[in-house]
Write a structure and sequence with these properties.
Elements: H1 3-43, E1 48-53, E2 56-60, H2 69-79, E3 84-90, E4 95-100, H3 108-131
Antiparallel strand pairs: 1-2, 2-4, 3-4
């Protein structure tokens, strides 16, 4: 191989590595922006996103501690979703771990739909409790 051929191969390799780094950075930026959007969606419900990676999200709320009526209604609804694998509640800490299909086809809209279910259940249970007072 000639010197020019080696140089071309090195440049091509460097370009590929640069593109891969930029793509990874862009993905991380998108994840951070999406996480911020999730936190904004859930903040008024006192729900915090403790951990989020594709395929797994851990949420926390003081309303979920102990034997929560919200959780009792919420888990069966989330388990009906075909892309959700498991939903685990830890009553001692008020956390909910949702494991779902990490496939890129499970997009932001799907996850937002799941969070809309959470919001709806919160509203329904809290409204019912308020009207029973």
């Amino acid at each position: 191989m000639s010197y020019n051929g080696s140089l071309h191969t090195l440049n091509h390799k460097h370009v590929k590595q640069s593109i891969a780094k930029e793509s990874t950075m862009l993905t991380k930026v998108k994840q951070v922006l999406f996480l911020k959007r999730l936190e904004k969606m859930l903040g008024s419900y006192r729900i915090d996103v403790l951990h989020f990676i594709p395929g797994r999200v851990r949420l926390s709320s003081p309303y979920w501690e102990g034997r929560s009526k919200i959780i009792t209604r919420l888990i069966p609804l989330l388990e009906l979703e075909n892309k959700i694998y498991t939903v685990k509640h830890t009553p001692e800490t008020g956390t909910l771990l949702v494991e779902y299909d990490p496939d890129p086809n499970v997009g932001e809209k799907q996850i937002e739909n799941w969070l809309t279910i959470i919001q709806r259940v919160h509203n329904d249970v809290i409204s019912k409790e308020v009207t029973e007072l």
